[in-house]
Write a structure and sequence with these properties.
alpha/beta, Rossmann fold, 33% strand, globular, single chain, 8-stranded mixed beta sheet, two-stranded antiparallel sheet
């Protein structure tokens, strides 16, 4: 399943990313702000757990998200600003990383790095800014499901209709939270109108 968000602030931030004149710092900052809004939506129905804390006037019990049950997994490297935004908010969560790259000739994704620890029964927030063909995201989900996770939410900045359809077809139980679904993929499997290569723009790589 998937949910595209239509809030004016989200659309304004997405369109800020489309501006090729902004520098890497502004690009990363905008990605982080968008990620926090996506996270807000993903955790809308998250149950709260009671916890005793020491307040200014003694011990009290309040309800919190059980962050220790959440694993934040990013698809390297473009997702790193998103990852930072999530763990800054859920600082009790655990981190994991998957390295997945696209073969420029075949357009197939290749897993080259897996640093996701024990996560059986855990809730995963999987961050990946761009869902083009959907191949990389499907590969990441496949890896996580093999580890027996309880559930997966994906946070995505931009997606193509084709990519959303591919992920939804293979993994209908995974909920995608998407800032904007763009028009289409071109023949080279890039999102149109898109915003360019998110990893390159975030870190000034060429």
């Amino acid at each position: 399943m998937y949910k595209e968000l239509h809030h004016p602030l989200i659309q304004s931030l997405v369109n800020t990313l489309r501006d090729n004149t902004i520098d890497a710092f502004v690009f990363r900052h905008t990605i982080k702000e968008l990620t926090k809004l996506l996270l807000y939506e993903a955790l809308r129905e998250e149950p709260l757990t009671p916890k005793k804390v020491i307040t200014w006037n003694g011990e009290k019990q309040y309800s919190y998200i059980n962050e220790e049950e959440i694993i934040v997994v990013s698809v390297l490297r473009a997702a790193l600003p998103m990852h930072e935004a999530v763990i800054d908010t859920l600082n009790g969560s655990v981190s994991g990383f998957l390295g997945i790259k696209r073969d420029e000739k075949t357009h197939k994704s290749v897993l080259y790095y897996d640093r996701v620890g024990e996560c059986a029964g855990k809730k995963v927030i999987l961050v990946d800014p761009m869902v083009a063909s959907g191949g990389s995201l499907c590969d990441a989900i496949k890896v996580l499901k093999a580890k027996k996770v309880q559930s997966i939410y994906t946070l995505n900045i931009l997606a193509s209709p084709e990519g959303v359809a591919e992920v939804n077809k293979k993994y209908p139980d995974v909920e995608m939270i998407i800032a904007k679904i763009d028009e289409k993929l071109n023949e080279d499997k890039f999102i149109l109108p898109g915003l360019g290569d998110a990893g390159d723009r975030a870190y000034n790589t060429r």
